[in-house]
Amino acid sequence: MDTTKKGDELEEQAFAVLESQIDEDRFLDVSEK
């Protein structure tokens, strides 16, 4: 079993989640103004 590949996949997933949260924050900032 290749554990490094699994780690990369998890990292990519976490990064995608983080990015979507940042986009949401930006969207909220814009709507508040």
Structural account:
The protein is mostly helical. The chain contains one helix and no strands. The protein has one helix spanning 3-32.
- Average pLDDT: 86
Radius of gyration: 15 Å
Q: What is the helix content? A: over 70%
Terminal CA distance reads 51 Å
Number of E-state strands? 0
What sort of overall outline do the alpha carbons produce when their principal axes are compared? rod-shaped
> Approximately what portion of the residues adopt beta-strand conformation?
under 5%
- The number of helices is 1
Low-confidence region ranges: none
- Which sheet architecture does the biggest sheet show? none
The run of helices and strands is: H
Helix/strand structural class: mainly alpha
Summary?
Helices cover 91% and strands 0% of the residues. With 33 residues, it is mostly helical.
Question: Tags for this entry?
Answer:
mainly alpha, 1 helix, 33 residues, 91% helix
Note the topology.
Elements: H1 3-32
